Amino acid sequence: MIENNMKPFYLGLSLLLSTIVSIASVHAQQNAVTDDGRRVILYMDGTWEYALSYERPGRPTEVNGKNVSLRLNNELMIWIEDGKMVDFSVLHDDLRLYDKMDGRLKRIGDFEIEYDFHTERIKRIGPYAIDYDFHTDKINKIGDYPIKYDFHTDKISQIGNTYFEYSFFNEKLTEVKGHTPGVEINFY
User: Quick check: helix, strand or coil at residue 177?
Assistant: First the structure.
């Protein structure tokens, strides 16, 4: 049983904590998705802005040659880690229409999404067919862009007409040869 002289203390403490919680929730921002699929940030004062970031959280600090983001013709961003697609975004006027691989979507903007019936992997995003290696499950091709891996290190050695060479001694990227028009390649 609480003594009478402690009741004002606990009452004041509970009022203080509830005030702090209510102030924090008033200033919180919320995310929403527009009718055409663009993500926006809503603020409590009635303003909003497009969420424009292309960065994925939790990126490793050192490039390992196995993780890459591809931007294809300013229409599609795909993140590949160890040969597998971990995320993608459909772009429209440089804004993201879709941001996370959650659920099973049939359409994003003008892009239809097709899934493989047996594996439930994505096999097409709009005009970009995705071909997987039967044995390793790694992506072999996206649209017209082949993706090849080094036999010994499993690092990406080719994307489209761009080739990557690694040091035999420390396995770091040493040279990039060629160019693939319409494809922006970023290792992470």
Answer: strand
- Chain-centroid distance, C-alpha 29: 21
pLDDT at 60: 45
Task: Identify the DSSP state of 115.
Answer: E
86 to 13, 50, 78, 82, 121: CA distances (angstroms)? 46, 23, 8, 9, 11
What are the residue ranges spanned by the domains of the chain? 7-50, 67-187
Cα–Cα distances in angstroms (integers) from residue 71 to residues 33, 112, 152, in the given order:
22, 18, 27
Distance between CA atoms of residues 29 and 14, nearest Å: 25
> Average pLDDT, whole number, for the chain?
80
More confident residue, 159 or 3: 159
pLDDT attached to residue 59 = 45
Edge-to-edge strands, sheet with 173-177? 107-108, 111-115, 122-125, 128-132, 139-142, 145-149, 156-159, 162-166, 173-177
Torsion sign over Cα 116, 122, 123, 125:
positive
Strand locations in 75-182 (E): 76-81, 84-92, 95-96, 107-108, 111-115, 122-125, 128-132, 139-142, 145-149, 156-159, 162-166, 173-177
Q: Is 18 helix (H, G, I), strand (E, B) or coil?
A: helix
